[in-house]
Every structure is written in C-alpha cells, then in structure tokens.
Amino acid sequence: LDTPEISIDGRHSGEKIVRPLYADDGAFIGYLEVSEGPAFGREILDSVAQGLVSAGAVAIILAALVGWLVSRNISQPLLALTEATSHMADGRLSARVDLKRSDELGILARSFNDMAHRVENTVVTLRRFVADAAHELHTPLTALRTNLELAVVETDPQTRENFIHRAEAQANRLEHLTNSLLDLARIESGSYQHQTQSVDLTGLVKQINEVYASRAEQAGLSLNLETPTQEVVIEANEPQITRVIDNLLDNALKFTPEEGTITLGLNLQETDVELWVKDTGIGIPSEDLPNLFNRFYRGHNVAAYPGNGLGLVIIKAIVEEHRGTVVVHSDHSGTRFSVRLPKGAVS
User: Fold this and answer.
1) What tens digit of pLDDT does each residue of 224-233 get?
2) Edge to edge, what strands does the sheet with 28-36 contain?
3) Domain count of the chain?
4) The CATH number of the domain where 294 resides is what?
5) What domain range includes position 244?
6) Rounded CA gap, 172 and 142, in Å?
C-alpha cells in the first residue's frame, strides 16, 4: 500500500494515495485516502455553488418580499389619505383617516383628521347659522316691512309716528338677534378671539351688581350680593364672563315679579369657582328643563316675555369654552343658575 495508486478517468486524471490507520495499541482504525488532480473537491465545489445559488435565490425572494411590505406600509396610508382628501373635496366632510401609528405618517393622519374636524365644525356652524337666520329673521322682517308700508300711506301724523316707532322696535330686535347669532356662531366655531387675562371675579361681580342695582330698584326688586372676603382670581376672557353674568341677571330681572329677590353670588372652591344667580321668580317647569339650553327654545310659561331663546345658549357656549359647566335648579319658589369655572379657566 506504500505505492501510490494512479487512476485515469478519460478527460481528467488524478492521483490517489490510500494508507491504513492504526491506533497506539496497534488496533486497526480505517483508511486515509488523499486524492489530487483536476477533479479534486469537485463535489464539494458543486455543493457550495449549489448552496450559493439557493441562498441567492432565497435572498432575492426575501428582498422582494421586504420591499413589497415596506412599499405597502407606506403606500396604503398615502392612498388612505388621498381617498379621504378626495371625499372632503366632494363635500363628504365626515371623511377621516383611520391610521393608528406613531411615525410621521401617523402624525400626518392625525393632523388631517384635526383639520377635517375643524372644517366640518365650521361648515356645520355656518349652515346652522344660515338656517337659524332664515327662520328667526323672517318674522321681524315681515313686521318691519308692514309697519313701514303702513307709515308711508298713513295720513295721520300721530298714527304714522306710531308705525315708525314699531318699525324701529323691530329693527332693534333684528339687530339684537343678528348679533346674538353671529356671536354664537363665532363661539361654536372656535373663531372667537380669546383675550385671556387674570380676572378678579370678586371685583367684577361687585361692579356688575352696582350696574344692575338701579334696574332692580326700578323694577321693585331687591338685588343682594354674596361674595367671599378674599380676592378670587381666574384666567379667563373678562368680556365673555361679564356677558354670562349679564345674561343671567337679565333673565332674573325679566322673570321675577315685583317685590321679589335676586341674589348674585360667588363661591371659592378647592379647584374651581362658582358664579350663581338665584331669584324668586316664576320658576321653570320640569318639562322645560331638558330643552332649556337648546337654541330658540322658549318655555311654556314665558310666551308673554320678550326674548329670542339664545341667551342661555350663549351662556352655555361661553362657559364650555372656558372648560366649565352650567347647571340650573328650579321649582315653584324660583330658579338658581350655577356656573362653575376652573381657576385656570380658558383653554
């Protein structure tokens, strides 16, 4: 076995050496075969080449799959945004993008939804304003036109003057109603300018009480004031808060009979403040309470009193804009409106 064994396989030739292997104790283990020539390691190389081809095919497939997944992950949200934008352009203002993710596409989707929500609110408010204006302005406009037409043809100076005064009253009613509608539309659409500042509610309530004291006295009513001794300060829009108190006191004066009592109060709580107005007026029937803050709603027992049904709606809108609440309690002995505002009131 010491002589090399030569083998020839046609086009290729090679040399092969085979030797027996023994252990240290002389036991036979096996044979060691060493070959050399052009065909040396061909099977190994073929196996490696085949493995590389297979690995390359798998890598290409994986790369294509990953590329498809990445493309799908990006293209689908963009398609959803494009579709929602198209819906908005077609007038479907409720279109939103349902995309819950924390990357840039998620931020873009949330920004789109916020924009769509604001646009929808603005358009809904505008449509409501137009509908309300058309409905509520019809009656005073008709009355205004009628009185002016009668004044034109009337020959008696005194009667003509009466018609003119009536027309003027209807014009004032129209102005008040239009301003109320515009203010309500601005507040509800979020376009109302928030000039926030530190407001001393104690001082403000005292000033307003002084203004209404003479009106209450002329109406034969008692106007009381209950405020804490310390200064109560919140961050709020002072003109709006003033309007809330004015509207509440106007209602109390309107619906409280002569010799009645109205109380304007301010309470300081741990996390908020309470503004309240209580009267000994005609009260509000229980069946009217659920609809009290609906626009243009007027209760069953107030038909004889002037008003357009927007005062309480404006109060509620302003209070909610300040992240507050308004609550009403009423029975046969009178009504109490309570407005609660956080100390840092304006959002």
Assistant:
1) 999 988 888 8
2) 5-9, 12-22, 28-36
3) 3
4) 3.30.565.10
5) 197-342
6) 14
